[in-house]
Amino acid sequence: MLDSHNLRTVKGMYIGGNWVAGQGSFDDINPSDGSLYARIPDGGRAEARMAIEAAQAAFPAWSSLMFQERAHYMLKIAEIWEKRSAEFVAAAQAEGGGWFGKGMFEAGYVPEVFRAAAGVLYGSIGEVLPSEHGKFSTAVRYPMGVISVISPWNMPGILTARGFAFPLAAGNTIVLKPSEDTPYAGGLFFAEVLEEAGLPKGVFNVITCSRERVQDMGDEMIENPLVKGVSFTGSTPVGRQIAAKAGAHLKKCCVELGGKDSLIVLEDADMDRATSAASFGSFMHQGQICMSVEKVLVQDSVYADFLRQFVARASKLKTGDTKDKANVIGPLINERQVARVRHQIEDALAKGAKAVLGGRIWDRYVEPTILTHVTPDMDVWRDETFGPVAIVVPFKTDAEAIAMNNDTEYGLSAGIITRNEERALRMARQLETGMCHINCSSINDEPHVPFGGSKASGLGRHGGKWSLETFTETRWITLDRGHRPYPQVF
Question: Is the pTM of this model over 0.90?
Answer without folding.
Answer: yes
